[in-house]
Amino acid sequence: MILNLSRPLVFLDFESTGLDTQNDRIVELAFVRLSPDGSREALVRPVNPGVAAMSKGATKVTGIHTNDACGLFGDGGKKPAQPLRKLGPELLAFLGDSDLAGFNQIAYDIPLWLAECKRHGIPFELKGRRQVDVKVLFHACEKTWDRFLMGPRNLGAAVRHYCGRELEGAHSAEVDTQATVDVLLAQLRRHTELPRDVQGLHDFCERNSDRNRDEEPAARGTTA
Q1: What 3-state class would DSSP assign to 7?
Q2: pLDDT tens string 208-223
Q3: Cβ burial 167-189 (10 Å sphere, 16+ → b, else e)
Q4: Among residues 203, 39, 31, 48, which one has the least CA distance to residue 101?
Q5: Could you give the C-alpha distances from 109 to 4, 169, 177, 191, 211, in angstroms and in order?
Q6: What residue ranges do the domains of the chain occupy?
Q7: Cβ neighbours of residue 205 closer than 8 Å, sequence gap 6 or more
Q8: In 3D, which of 92, 190, 194 has the Cα closest to residue 133?
Q9: Quick count: other Cβ atoms within 10 Å of Cβ 223?
């Protein structure tokens, strides 16, 4: 595999009630674990956010309404959504001691996750985990990107640019997460100057994370 892994790298994505990482709630999550042998394993769960209401903006993006979120996937024989606190042990077991990756996870997904873990008493520890933010790599590597001609550097644009396809089913947490894995591997093939190990990519993202802030917060989304 083009990426050298000493331990699993878990890509994560959350659909939420809004963009406030400290006060909004997760309504759907997807973890995709990339193992050193290149295999992938996914964990996808709907989450009942409790009393939190979906913002109009979040509903427009995800298609999930407040009533849907509080009983998400509860019909049709599918497993009903559970509060995050009940999912905590399963999620922590899946994460193990893995490093973390995602698309804009440094600015959005990880702060949201940490706030939710604190709220629900989930003993997640970030210390010692390296982070690879695929959106930061996108910004840092594509220096000539013209957002007025090519649009914002969101996940849909990244999939189109690096993978040569359209992102179908955007704003499904699993679709977005699997696409992020594909984009990272394609970035490494295209940009030979990028490190091939997670520590090197972590350090690169730390040095370049400010470049991720030149577009509006709404651009974290995956629309093309």
Answers
A1: coil
A2: 987 555 454 444 444 3
A3: beebbbbbbbbbbbbbbbbbbbe
A4: 31
A5: 24, 19, 12, 25, 17
A6: 9-220
A7: 106, 131, 132, 133, 136, 137
A8: 194
A9: 15
What's the sign of the alpha-carbon dihedral 224, 103, 42, 35?
A: positive
For every residue of 50-76, DSSP letters joined together read TTPPPPHHHHHHH---HHHHHTTT-ST
Indicate the pTM of the whole model. Answer: 0.85
Structure tokens at 218: 């709404």
How many residues make up the chain in this entry? Answer: 224
Tell me yes or no: is domain 9-220 CATH 3.30.1660.10.
no
50 confidence band (pLDDT: 50, 70, 90): confident
Q: How far apart are CA 7 and CA 25, in angstroms?
A: 29
Tell me the C-alpha distance between 121 and 118, whole Å.
5
Instruction: Taking each helix axis as running N to C, give the angle between helix 198-208 and helix 134-141, from 0 to 180 degrees, rounded to the nearest 10.
Output: 70
